[in-house]
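Hi R.,

Here are the chain sequences for the assembly we discussed:
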Amino acid sequence: MTSPATESGSARRPSAMGRVLRNQMRNIAPFATLIVLLVFFAVASPSFASLDNASNILTQISVTGIIAVGLTFVILCAEIDLSVAAIANATGILVAYLTLQESYVNIPNVPLPGWAAILVSLIACAALGVVNAFGVTRIGIPSFIMTLAMMQIGAGICALLVRGQIAYAVPDLVTTLGSGSIGGVPWLVIVLAVFLLAGHLVLTYTRFGRYVFMVGGNREAAEYSGVNVKLIIGSVMVISAVCSGVAGMLGVAHFGSAQQNEFDSYLLDAIAAVVVGGTSLFGGRGGIGNTIVGLCVLGVLNNGLDHIQIDSFLKILIRGLILLAALVINVYAQRLREETAAG
Amino acid sequence: MATADAPPLLELTGISKSFGGVAALRDVDFTLRAGEIHGLVGENGAGKSTLMKIIAGVHSDFDGRMAIDGSEVRFRSARDALAAGIGMVHQELSIVPDLSVAENVYLGHQPVNRAGLIDWPAMMEGARAQLKSLGIDVDPGERIGSLPIGLQQLIELARVLFSGARIVILDEPTSALSPPEVQILFEVLRRLRASGRGIIFISHFLDDILSISDTVTIFRNGRRVVTHATQGIDKGWVIERMIGGGHEELEESYVGAISLHSRPDAPVVLSARGLTLGRAFADVSLDVRAGEVLGIYGFMGCGQLELARALFGKVHASSGTLAIGGETRRLANTTDAKRRGIAFVPESRRAMLFHHEPVFKNVSIAVLDRISRLFVRPAEERAIAKGHVDSLNIRPGSVDIPLGSLSGGNQQKVALAKWLTHPPKVLVLSEPTRGMDVGAKDDVVQIVRALRDRGMGVVVVSTEPETVLSLADRILVMKKGRIVREFASETISKDRLLEAA
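And here is the predicted structure of the full complex:
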């Protein structure tokens, strides 16, 4: 029996370059996807590659982006929050509910001064996050199920507050941040940038951020190192809820109305942005940088598909396929890392 | 035994294998005859596992030739090896705890009836008969997870045999077993030998190897040192060839008696009174003294792992009290325990370390709350880690490489290092030297002694008598969740320790 085993053995040994590529797969793949999409749409549609459209894309991803910042923390901890869109919706409706509406709006609302309405709304979304945190860490409900219940609770709060009606007015500050602009730059984009930056700084440079990565990387080891794992997981659930709440308030101002089911598509978009960006679904790997790339991929895709002649019903399917491809890469990248570490 | 001119059941000649330029096996010959129990000994890293993985088809890429019944084979996968009649029982059992005994025996090839459904009566009967032929009397309908570990192992062995294995590799089969269970296993192995199967028995427990095997092969540094009939050799002879000289202290802990030096007048830093936790342990009372190493010895599953976790606030005893420095209190969680000056290194390095993270983050994680209020300070973390890496002789010396690229012994040192920056009052170590080579073991012993001499109270929990004997100043023996014996300030040998458990 002849055996080529020894030759192929040395040939198969990955070079240093190959090793770096394998390790960085989760960062490179999303970025490459973004470049490919940009080139494709720029060639396919003359109206795509313009400064105006770039600004459009940024505005379009802003609400998703603010939610995605909080969700990045949760996914880095190897947990999930399915209630982000529902909490956004509920908080957006609540802030409108606490604002004096025009007389034709038939909602028995409770007008408060603008700052009070905002404060109460922020406390409310944080409280929903605390409920999530309590369920996951104290009672021990898997976050997938706990936040699924919270999703329904959020929808219920929305329904009770607006009773099928639509509210329009929100506090001035919210209106400005959600739909105003300064020097041609929408405030919404600035708020997104602030959230992304803050998220990045917290994750990269603070002790809490380090704990988030370590808890996601190996929860048991974190606990054996004396890290208060439940506190960290609880905290990320609250952070996620507060980010969602802010996104919800600004989203209501951006859309110009507060109503039920307004944010339904944002759950999938926010999760997709985080995961497409390359943050590991198994926790411990990724970060805000990845989420930014993920948001851009999603934003360019959504916007670009509007610029080219394509069946609008096909768009939905294409988005689904892109998400699937990202999931495949995400899991595959994890496996590559493990093989490299083992070998 | 087979006649001399019949080809051996398994024959390997001139096997060499290297990983990334490092030779794991160098020109190794190995022969297994039908009806033979062949013991394989050597320190960790000596090449035993690599050779077994080659036999079991895990490594298909090696130099040399392998023959079964005289005809050359080359396996491309573990499945090939299985098809050729080679079965392996790993130290970590691969049973499915929530399935029944019968389902586990038939895992992967359940009998089906005409309708294509699982034929339960046939499966139950088949499993019962199969186990009976090995001398195991157990209800095949029982959930396997609720059986003792020794029985689970025998059932796994039954499964391997059931799949048609003629060559059975047992990796550390006795490490989790109590002496009576070991005897039952040996009884089964003798039956298999009589039926003409070839058995490879890998173990660190030399007594077990010497009492069951017909032939012993000793490995050192990737080479086969010697193959010898078991009759007429003793433990000292084996150890000498395994270690290759120059390790008198550890050799003494292997065979000889040691004298304990407890410090009954030292202050008590941690004490437990009547700790009880479900089925794990009951009515455990103990005192940990400053500057003393307290060894807790017991067989696998005697509750010592849970006890260690209870001392660190990872699990909560259902009754009993803990006092730290004389103050009675309940540990809310591991963070609380750490704040109170208790540190813990669990038996599994995987459960303790972050394999993808660099060494310095693995070290600093336990002290982040002390060195940074809000922002992390990587420069200081690196400096702290570098200090430990140098003083503990961790190799390679870089603190920026991923932890996973270190060897097991060095990883264990990192696990210890994380608690040394701000030394705790009490350090609880579970199996601190398990799976380490002699040199690394020796390093750990030195580190622990140094910590003790600085006044730390150390608890060493282990199922390996050598570990406890080489480290402890006072020894508690646990049996079925209770402390049954204390050895202090006396001379003790391994036999007396084993006897007590």
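The domain at 1-85+166-245 of chain B is CATH 3.40.50.300 (Rossmann fold). The longest helix of chain B spans residues 179-194.

Let me know if anything looks off.

Best,
T.
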